[in-house]
Amino acid sequence: MIQYISLLRGINVSGKNMIKMPALSEMYVNLGFINVKTYIQSGNVVFRTTEDDILSIEKRISEEILKCFSLNISVLVIESSMLKKNYAENPYLKQTNAAIDKLYLLFLSENPSEIMLDKINAELYIPDEFIVKEKVIYLHCPSSYGNTRLNNTFFEQKLKLKATVRNLKTVKALVDLTENA
Which of 48, 100, 137, 180 is least surrounded, with the fewest CB atoms within 10 Å of its CB? Predict the structure, then answer.
């Protein structure tokens, strides 16, 4: 069995795309996933399956959400071992001046193209900063994520990829949840 975390983009935000977590959990169980656990209302689901094709899992979940809730939701699935690695390797955690509540991980559907990354002039967004490592963008937003232009939509448009963001507290909670599941 492989343990995964699915990250749903844009559910239960400002009264839009509402999905109750018990109904979402039940949907996952009906898809054949086991040890299903949700974390907070923003669409974080830990589960296990024998399936190893992440793209297929994402597609199945997305199609089932459309069928069950009539919502077209972007879904990113990550192996729990990768989430733990992403958390542990956060370069901003080592900086003493980086407040934990100002750190975010933006998960991408695939590795971004160097050509697309080179088009982003990071100096234009200071004091906000980011570091890209494979399918994750580590964000440090000293003011707040709510005020940065380096948000989820920005990176989706610039990199032409699906993305979803989680604050570091949520990522840590998901790492802890995977260790207890």
Answer: 180
Q: pLDDT confidence of 12, banded at 50, 70, 90?
A: low
Q: How many CB atoms lie within 10 A of CB 17?
A: 17
Residue ranges and CATH numbers for the domains of the chain are 2-82 (3.30.70.1280), 86-179 (3.30.70)
Kindly tell me if the per-residue pLDDT of 15 is higher than 80: no
The model's pTM is 0.91
pLDDT tens by residue, 86-122: 999 999 988 767 788 999 999 999 999 999 999 999 9
pLDDT averaged over every residue in the chain = 92
Percent of the chain with pLDDT strictly greater than 70: 97
Please state, in angstroms and rounded to a whole number, the distance separating the CA atoms of residues 72 and 159: 21
DSSP secondary structure of the chain: -EEEEEEESS-SBTTBS---HHHHHHHHHHTT-EEEEEETTTTEEEEEES---HHHHHHHHHHHHHHHH-----EEEEEHHHHHHHHHT-GGGG-TT--GGGEEEEEESSPPPHHHHHT--GGGGTT-EEEEETTEEEEE-SS-GGG-SSSHHHHHHHHTS-EEEEEHHHHHHHHHHHHT-
